[in-house]
Design goal:
The chain is α+β, with helices and mostly antiparallel strands. It contains 8 helices and 6 strands. It has 2 domains: about 90 residues, no CATH class; about 110 residues, no CATH class. A hairpin with a 2-residue loop joins strand 3 and strand 4. Helix 1 crosses helix 3 and helix 5 runs antiparallel to helix 8.
Length: about 220
């Protein structure tokens, strides 16, 4: 089926889950989740796949083993795209993200070298400025409080150097268009607008070559 957005029932499902995050609520409303939340996201990812790659929807259950919050279910649906991009639906509306949320040590080293360089770092500043001109937020994640070791505190791009992640993010509040195919157009526009940031990160940071930690 073609993607036609999310109905009010999808948002009401998450409103109810925020009020009653329990297995009882989930079981009673599982059909609504599958038909009104999961099915549209699956349809959207299928339509995005030819350009943005395979999508993966995160499981709705929370991992509470090491968390003080033992609420069993996530109050938002998240999905990632193979070629870069993150989508999220919740009671507050639709959101999209792109970038690198948490860099591994080898990625962070390459990122900081590229930011410090006047050529590649200056190019990143221009990319960010153009994205923000389109009313999309670009922000760092988990920034250190001072200059990273080996970099001067008065570096002209010190704010970028302090980041351990860099992400473009757009949040759309609930509106009538969310229940139409316009939701897809907004996601596609976001991914096109933020592609230069993804390309810069792919070119100058790339994937981590460090071994995954043992579980």
């Amino acid at each position: 089926m073609a993607f036609r957005g999310w109905s009010a029932e999808a948002l009401e499902f998450y409103e109810g889950l925020e009020a009653d995050n329990s297995k009882t609520y989930w079981t009673a409303n599982k059909t609504t989740y599958e038909r009104k939340v999961l099915a549209p996201m699956t349809e959207l990812l299928a339509e995005l796949e030819p350009e943005f790659g395979t999508g993966k929807i995160f499981r709705p259950n929370r991992d509470v083993r090491f968390s003080a919050d033992k609420s069993p279910y996530k109050t938002a649906m998240g999905a990632v795209l193979e070629h870069g991009g993150y989508l999220q639906l919740s009671a507050t509306g639709l959101a999209a993200g792109s970038g690198m949320w948490m860099m591994a040590a080898d990625q962070l080293e390459r990122y900081r070298r590229a930011v410090a360089d006047d050529g590649t770092g200056g190019a990143l500043e221009k990319i960010i400025a153009e994205i923000e001109r389109q009313r999309i937020e670009v922000s760092g994640h988990d920034a250190v409080k001072t200059a990273p070791r080996g970099y001067p505190r008065d570096h002209p791009r010190i704010d970028l150097l302090r980041n351990k992640g860099l992400v473009a993010w757009k949040q759309w509040p609930v509106a009538a268009w969310l229940g139409t195919a316009t939701a897809k157009r907004r996601v596609v526009d976001f991914l096109h607008t933020t592609r230069p940031l993804r390309d810069w990160l792919d070119r100058h940071v790339g994937s981590s070559t460090m071994p995954a930690p043992e579980r």
